[in-house]
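Before relying on records like the one below, remember that each one covers exactly one chain. Contacts with other chains, cofactors or solvent are not represented anywhere in the record.
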Amino acid sequence: RRGRLLNLCLTLTAQLAVLAGVASSAEAGREAARRALASGDALERFRAFVAAQGGDAAVVDDLSMLPMAPVSRVVEATVDGWLAAVDAAAVGQVAAALGAGRQRIDHRIDPAVAVELPVKIGDRVSAGDPIGRVAARDEQAAEQAAERLLGALRWSDQPVPPPPLVYRVVSR
C-alpha cells in the first residue's frame, strides 16, 4: 500500500511545486520530491515543522512517545468478497465518536484513540481477515466503533477495480 500513498504524495507535491513556482513542470516537481525523500531532507523538514508547531520533534523518530489508548480492537471482515465502497464520512464519524475529532467546538481531542482501515477499495478479503483496527478508551467504545466501521463498508462478490488516486489535475 505504501506505493499508492507514495504515488499520491508525489503527485500532489509535484503539482504544488509548480503552483508555487519552484518547479518548471510536474515531472521536475516530482523528481525534486523524490530526491528530498531519498536524501532525508523531507524528514528533516518534517521534524522542523513539528517543532515549529510546539511539538516534540523526537516523536518523529520514536513513535512510542505518542499516547496509546488502553483498548486496541482488530476489526475483521464479516464476508468473503471485494471491498466495493467506503463511506468516508461515516468513518470520520466513528473516529470523532471515539474522541479523535470534535463533534462540538468545546470537545477535547484525544490523541490516543484511532481508527485504522488499511483495506482499500478493490481488495479481496475472506471472512475473518483483519481489515482494520480501533483504538479506544474502553471496551464498549471499541465494540461500538468496530460495528459502526463495518457498517461503513460495502462489499461485492465480484472483483472491483480500485479507483484512481487522482481523477484529474485542474491547472490555472
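The longest strand covers residues 130-136.
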